[in-house]
Amino acid sequence: MPRAITELDLAVSYAIPRLGLPAAVSFRRWAEAALSGRIKRADLALRIVGEREGRALNRHYRGRDYATNVLSFPAELPPGVKLPILGDIVMCAPVIAREARQQGKDLAAHYAHLTVHGVLHLLGWDHDNTTEAEAMETLERQILDSLGFDDPYAE
Fold first, then answer.
1. What is the pLDDT of residues 94-119, one digit of tens each?
2. What would the pLDDT profile of 2-41 be if each residue is shown by its tens digit?
3. How many CA atoms lie within 13 A of 48 on its CB side?
């Protein structure tokens, strides 16, 4: 079982109806697992959005005109400011539901994976090349295994 971080301030907001979506307590558990042993204090926001908002954010911040499953926005604090603010994660519920169906995955397991994935991005992990991708995927597998979820990358 992963060590719990000392303190997590997680704000979860739902921009769409919550029916069928994980509860805030689940997102907290998944985020804590991703943070465990890596930092002691964290402040982050997680927002669940619909396709329109997801597309608008992806277009504005990444120049891609479609909704994607998860976006991570690391905090940009001024030099010398030491606050536990990690940043924001935006998850697009319709995209995540569609992916889970197409990939034959349990919806909660897919949300857990994408929460862990988003938190790791806030911590500076990336997958811009094969080496980084393999390291990040290995870490995701370990975290999800500690939560009782199957390998999200298994075929």
1. 999 999 999 999 999 999 999 999 99
2. 455 568 999 999 999 999 999 999 999 999 999 998 998 9
3. 20
Residue 21 phi, psi (nearest 5): -95, 150
Rg over alpha carbons for the chain, rounded to the nearest Å, is 15
The two three-digit tokens of residue 58, written as one number:
């992806």
Cα(33)–Cα(17) distance, rounded to whole angstroms? Answer: 26
CA–CA separation, 27 vs 154, rounded Å? 22
Kindly provide the residue ranges of all beta strands, DSSP E only, lying in the chain, ordered along the sequence.
7-14, 41-49, 70-74, 85-92
Helix, strand, coil tally for the chain in percent (to 5): 45, 20, 35
Contact criterion met (CB below 8 Å) for 45 and 9: no
DSSP state of 2: P
